[in-house]
Amino acid sequence: MFYRRRLATIAQIWQERPSETAAQLHSRMNAAVRAVVRMGIYVGAKVYFVHEGYQGMVDGGDNIKEATWESVSSMLQMGGTVIGSARCKDFRTREGRLKAAHNLVQRGITNLCVIGGDGSLTGANLFREEWSGLLAELVQQGLIDEEASQKYSALHIVGMVGSIDNDFCGTDMTIGTDSALHRIIEVVDAIMTTAQSHQRTFVLEVMGRHCGYLALVSALACGADWVLIPEMPPEDGWEEKMCQKLSATRSRGSRLNIIIVAEGAIDRHGKAITSSIVKDLVVQRLGFDTRVTILGHVQRGGTPSAFDRILASRMGVEAVLALLETTANTAACVVSLCGNQSVRLPLMECVQMTQEVQKAMDGKRFEEAVRLRGRCVSYALFSNFNVAVLNVGAPAAGMNAAVRSAVRVGISEGHKMFAVSDGFEGFYKGQIKEIKWADVGGWTGQGGSLLGTKRTLPAKHIDKIAEQMRKYNINALLMIGGFEAILGIMELLAARGTYEELCVPMVMVPATVSNNVPGSDLSIGADTALNAITDTCDRIKQSASGTKRRVFIIETMGGYCGYLASVGGLAAGADAAYIFEEPFDIRDLQSNVEHLTEKMKTGIQRGLVLRNENSNENYTTDFIYQLYSEEGKGVFDCRKNVLGHMQQGGAPSPFDRNFGTKIAAKAMQWITKKLNESYRKGRVFANTEDSACLLGMRRRAMVFQPVVQLKDETDFVHRIPKEQWWLKLRPLMKILAKYKTSYDISDSGQLEHVVLRRPKESEAMAAI
């Protein structure tokens, strides 16, 4: 049984190529380490740290130490890895692996959780395959007896991928990638101000020797003019095309150009394209004042983002559950992310596919390399339609990125794009104008809603809205917003029987910090809000570093939806999070106070409690603050903070910029497809259920869902979905805060193959 097992967690770098001169430290492993340790202790395992990766396993001694609950406290906000990571030439030899096996057997360790890249995981799998032979050799040398060999006869391996390059096949995102994007975007946003002032061109070099993910996504997130990545070398003559693009951008009135270059960028002949080559090219051909910035290891450092903390925590718990279910015949697996769901994949299948990408690139089969990296989607295009885009409800960071993406994708597909100011209020007032390519330049990194947005619903003004649609000949609508947007599209749909002008394709993209839109696991703006909460909680806890025993009560936004409080609490390491969806009473509050009191007596100095703004009309933030202050007298004191609208403001996070860009592009492609299908006898007519959809992230895929089918899933009184996926994360937050609670494993990942089947199209959903 698992409670008799012993588990070791390793943050390890395995050097694969002699040309790499330094170990690459994946800088956001601490949340994963914390989750493995605390979940391991929760299920009754004895957990060990292996310091300095495989080198520590080979050397043994104090490098392998038992971990305690308190040893991973205050780790979430720290960059790097507290247990160290290093190259290990010794482990590449059988003699070194023999020493490592001996050190593990001495401590009764037969379960390894390895956090690293494909090289580290390959080394772990080789170690597992050799295990029985290594034990036999140890018996032969008299270092262990036959009884120990039989007792520890099987080694179980589960991997988690830690890599800022996001270059591992089988997972949508690796631990550390989102934080690296945060560092890049912070630099780009800062550089853009000076570039604008001095009319300069900046060439930014980002990491990615063999994978262009960071370069490509950061280019999307900042609206770069040109990007160069290793998997997609530019065609011959790219130099002239790039210069023409930069010149055209300047001629439209832009005062700056941004070019992003992956460090491994090459041309079609395998020749390196460096940032200095690009700079010289721009200076010589265009005469633009050009500067080069090489970000280097800045991308590896810094505080981990909220996304990385949540991802690493989820993956760490899933890794322990995977070890819990292993048998002697279970293949080594790696815990991965597919859409919004954790999955388990055979480790070596993922490694082999990752290596296939490199082989394709080495053989100059670049199209194959791109195909192996991910899927492509194409649609038949039908041009010359008028498409209107509007923001509805409260502003959310990332809305502008979505509008920019929709406008430019729409124009590229031949449509005439119209912008509606101030939501439905502006719609019925006629605040509609054509929006062109250049009009949305520089929108990606700006917070709020540049189009303007209001909470006004269309029902009272349907006649005027229909009149405006007739006046401007609007053939399709794209709505970007929160709960008001889904109410609005439902009201428009209900009026189709009266107003034929409304019989056009309509699609809604969720954008709200509250993440309370039915039909989607995630909304544009929620990640930025989570980062604001996490950053603030980090600073608040740090403010008490010179004091002793202090508990902070933090109020978050969200209306009746507890997403921000719950997931923010998981990311910030909260001790409790009070939400509407999980009713609580005075006994729960008292229990939480007693729990914190016990923790403080064990040496923990700071506590953190989050409360959703509408969690309970009687147990207000002031009430909870006063209760904790009174009951904690003599043990800890209290402070409270209401975060308010700071959660709604600020520049969008890289995730929200990227998510907004991609989801709006998919929405426009769907609109084009529906326009093509519904164009009959010289006009567009669409009145079926599937012509008015919400595009949302559902588990593993982006899914189009008819809004009429979402009515049964919605609590309209409290403006929340009836079922919310993140509620399953709440026990995880409690476990990591040392509460005794149950954990539902019914939704845990199952071992699958790398080539995953996607949801099929049906009458209700069309996944893309």
Automatic annotation (TrEMBL):
All residue ranges annotated as the Phosphofructokinase domain in the record: 29-322, 386-671
Binding site for ATP: R87, C88, G117, D118, G119, S120
Principal place of residence: cytoplasm
GO BP of this protein: canonical glycolysis; fructose 1,6-bisphosphate metabolic process; fructose 6-phosphate metabolic process
Start and end residues of each stretch annotated as N-terminal catalytic PFK domain 1: 1-384
SUPFAM superfamilies (alphabetical): Phosphofructokinase (SSF53784)
UniProt cofactor(s): Mg(2+)
Presence of keyword Cytoplasm: yes
Annotated region (C-terminal regulatory PFK domain 2), positions in chain: 386-768
Example GO molecular function: monosaccharide binding
Active site: D165
UniProt signal peptide: none
Regulation: Allosterically activated by ADP, AMP, or fructose 2,6-bisphosphate, and allosterically inhibited by ATP or citrate.
Residues binding Mg(2+), per UniProt: D118
Catalytic activity: beta-D-fructose 6-phosphate + ATP = beta-D-fructose 1,6-bisphosphate + ADP + H(+)
Gene3D superfamilies: 3.40.50.450, Phosphofructokinase domain
GO cellular component: 6-phosphofructokinase complex; membrane
Transmembrane residue ranges: none
Iron in keyword set: no
Keyword terms, alphabetized: Allosteric enzyme, ATP-binding, Cytoplasm, Glycolysis, Kinase, Magnesium, Metal-binding, Nucleotide-binding, Transferase
Family named by the database record: Belongs to the phosphofructokinase type A (PFKA) family. ATP-dependent PFK group I subfamily. Eukaryotic two domain clade 'E' sub-subfamily.
PANTHER family named in the record: ATP-DEPENDENT 6-PHOSPHOFRUCTOKINASE, PLATELET TYPE (PTHR13697:SF5), PHOSPHOFRUCTOKINASE (PTHR13697)
Subunit structure: Homo- and heterotetramers.
Protein name in UniProt: ATP-dependent 6-phosphofructokinase
Source organism: Cyprinus carpio
